Amino acid sequence: xLITIGLQSFSQKQTNSLKQxxxxxxxxxxxxxxxxxxxxxxDGMLLVRKxxxxxxxxxxxxxxxxxxxxxxxxxxxxxxxVKLGQKDSMYMIGHTLVWHSQLPQWVHxxxxxxxxxxxxxxxxxxxxxxxxxxxxxxxxxxxxxxxDGSMRESVxxxxxxxxxxxxxxxxxxxxxxxxKLYYNDYNMVVPAKRQGAIRIIKELQAQGIPIHGVGMQGxxxxxxxxxxxxxxxxxxxxxxxxxVMITELDITVLPNPWDLVGADVNQKFENSEKMxxxxxxxxxxxxxxxxxxxxxxFKIFVKYHANIDRVSFWGVHDGVSWLxxxxxxxxxxxxxxxxxxxxxxxxxKSVISLVKQAENK
Length: 361
Ligand code: G3I
Hints:
Layout: H1 2-14, H2 18-21, E1 27-32, H3 34-37, H4 42-51, E2 54-57, H5 63-66, H6 76-87, E3 91-99, H7 105-108, H8 113-130, E4 137-142, H9 155-160, H10 163-175, E5 180-185, H11 191-206, E6 213-221, H12 227-238, E7 243-252, H13 284-303, E8 308-313, H14 346-360
This protein binds ligand G3I.
Ligand G3I binds at residues 58-59, 62, 101-102, 142, 186, 217, 248, 263, 265, 322.
């Protein structure tokens, strides 16, 4: 009798948080913004510590913020992020080294290939070097592709050609040889774009340049992408012999202006009542759809857990999601597992009960 009670309480403890419930499958991550890093969002940090074992800085390591002018590096918040992660034994992912967005004007203005390569190298060495042996993995290159799989016309591509990607990964490997190096992008479920990513990965592999994984950003909605496309994307990437990460997972429940899909931060639209239908609370009907959608998606992740190292949400709770301000400013969105009062939603319950059921089989 005593033993049974003991086992029951142990089992409850094991599945009482996302990170514990999913420990046999993959890491569960989240993105921290400056209010978490500075410990301003106390309740948010309680959720982070209880439920997540991997953290990514949502903004503070982006080039524009960490390296705003040629000789200026802002390491205060990134240092605080790393300190916090070390204290709580978190797996830490650096985000991101080479990205066309949030890039300061002085980098956009470079036209000389030799200079740009040098600047990129120095940036990677300075930033990665500072956190060598502390940050476990980096999104080395972010969003290098157009939707049709061709190369995005970023300053890096225009000045250095497509070889900038190989150079960035080579510099990253030199800066911290033990660090895991990833390519990260959205809409990887779209076959044409995925082919572009596969091309990039194969080119690096052919040159013997280390790439350890691919981050599939999960900026999805209640109906898109199809479960088949998610599954296909995971298996296509796994076939390349690299690890798959689901990064930046969130599921918008709001209308999509002009049927926009993806996460191009440059696209913005006007707010209206029609576009912001749930300003005060999430109706049960939608909450149920969201819970079912998360359940269906996590079933796939669990199925392919041998290929998936981490599933990271893009934000801790609904109140801090970037989707409240994109692609329309000032809306009230509900894309995550925890609500604005830091309470688990139905979607949390569907995600966690999925692995509890598996355990009981
Ligand atoms: O910090 C300033 C604040 O001082 C200012 O008053 C305010 C007014 O606009 O802006 C604040 O900066 C905002 C920043 O987020 C911090 O909240 C920027 O305007 C805003 O553009 C920025 O958005 C971020 C976006 O990337 C662009 O960098 C989002 O938080 C962040 O979630 C989003 O994350 C990206 C990933 O890095 C890459 N994949 C897509 C994903 C979603 O766009």
